Amino acid sequence: MSAQAPSAVILVRATSFVPNPATAADNAFQADAPAGQSEEATSACALAEEDALATALREAGVRVHVFEDDDHTRPDSVFPNNWVSTHAGGTVAVYPMYASNRRHERRADVLEMLKSEYRVQAIVDYSGLEPDGIFLEGTGAMVLDHVSRVAYTARSYRADSAVLERFCTDFNYEPMAFDAVDSEGVPVYHTNVIACIGTDVAMIALEMIADEQRREQVRERLAVTGRTIVELTEEQIREFAGNAVELCGRTPDGKRRYIMAMSARAKRSLRPEQVAAIEESCEIVAVDIPTIELAGGSVRCMIAGIHLDRRPPLEQVELTEAVAAINEDNPVTPDGRYVDGNA
After folding, report:
1. Which terminus of the chain faces fewer neighbouring Cβ atoms within 10 Å, N or C?
2. DSSP-based three-state secondary structure for 241
3. In a domain, 148, yes or no
4. Containing domain of residue 101, as a range?
């Protein structure tokens, strides 16, 4: 399993979808549905896009866990990466959410699936910080370098520095916070709209980091592992070019393949040399999701990666336990015979 690129993901199949009015105030990427289009029609379009992404990822050999959501009071539930993240070694984090109508996106059945199918040692829950007005919206607020253990974070209402420090202490990351703004001085609401970190390539809008010295520090930190840095423009960021994620899939014959999942809109915004730089290390898988992008997020926001070891199938566990019980009752000699003399 790749440290940076998970081979399994969580998607939420939301049957009711509309751009969330509660998040519009600080999400400059959000837009209204087409005039005259009903909520039912918008939801139907979004559902088709969700299914298309799940199909594309499965065809690329990624394990996809899809959870149904019929609750019409959760307009942003299609973006699970904001409330949960998983980490090598068996730890899961649950996060405090800025918008009150997003807080019940957190689901016990998702956590139960993780515990039953993957090796989970502990769940660290920061959601109790919400009453204090302290928020950290998961891998939307942070873009994590799992190789160098760095948490790149654009400061915002959705990324409180105190809980960022606490997360980094608990999960052994180095915090690297910075201010990022657009050309009109509007702060970036989530770090993952301006940056994506893969195993051998990173895409980031360095020009949107306000402080020049901090900008160069971020550049140097990303490059220290030898990654190719693809610099994105603000115009490309508005097309969601930064909202991508590297995943580890499998070819039909079982060989490992790295993919960069992004929207078709994002890919269209990339210049040929940028596409070439990305494809030196991974294949681009692009899916058209214009309806979902109305909510201010794209493919990266839709994916909660699973960085956990998978549990063996139940049949294998039962067989292993049965063999262990036989060996305990019948000790084996160095030459491979049971102590009681039977072969």
Report:
1. C
2. coil
3. yes
4. 8-329
Better-scored residue on pLDDT, 33 or 224: 224
Burial string for 297-325 (b: 16+ CB within 10 Å, else e) reads bbbbbbbbbbbbeeeeeeeeeeeeeeeee
In a domain, 336, yes or no: no
Pairing of the two strands 228-231 and 245-250: unpaired
- Cα–chain center distance at 16: 22
Question: What single-letter amino acid sits at 48?
Answer: A
What is d(CA 68, CA 213) in angstroms, rounded to the nearest whole number? Answer: 45
Range scoring the smallest mean pLDDT among 33-47, 155-169, 259-273, 276-290 = 33-47
What is the C-alpha to C-alpha distance for residues 43 and 271, in angstroms, rounded to an integer?
A: 32
User: E-strand spans in 192-323?
Assistant: 195-197, 201-204, 228-231, 245-250, 256-263, 283-287, 304-306
Tens of pLDDT along 194-240?
999 999 999 999 999 999 999 999 999 999 989 999 999 999 999 99
